[in-house]
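Field reference: sequence -> structure
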Amino acid sequence: MSISVETIAPDDHVRGPANARLTLIEYGDFECPHCAAAAPVVRSVLAELPGDLRLVFRHYPIVISHREAHLAAQASEAAAAQGKFWEMHDLLFQRQASLSRASLLSYAGELGLDMGRVSAELESGRYVERVDRDLELGEEIGVRWTPTFYLNGRRLGPLPDPSQLLGIVRSA
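Structure field:
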C-alpha cells in the first residue's frame, strides 16, 4: 500500500521545508537498534539535501520486543509539547540503552523541559492515544518492522544497511 504526502497531519513531526520535492516518512521505535543505527544516516541525508528533502517521523513502538519503546515515544511527545521533539528524538536514540521512566525524566531535565509537567503527562498517559494513532496508521499501511521508510509515498524495502538510504533518496 502507498501513502501520499497529503497524509501528513498537522501534529506530525517534520524536519525540512514544507515545499520540499521529496518527503521521507520514517516509522521508528526508540528502542530499536536498527532505528538508532539509521538515525545518523537520516540526519546526513537531510544535511546533503537541505532544500529538497523533508523528514516526517512517526511512532511504531514494537512493544512485544521493546518494553520501554511506547513510554519513550510518549516522552518524545511530552517534549514536543514543550517545543523539543527533535532534541528528545536524537537523545533517545543516543541513549537507547536506558529508557526507563527515571532516565526519560533525566533526559527531559537535560533538555530544559519542565520535569514536573513531563512526569505528570507520562503518569496520566496523556500521549498514549497520540502514539497509538501513529502505530495504527502504520499497521494500516503495512508497516511490519522498524525503521520503515516511505519516499514520496512509496515504501522502501527493508534496508539491510542504513547507508543505502542516501543512494535511494539521491536517485529519486
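Note: The chain has one domain: 5-171.
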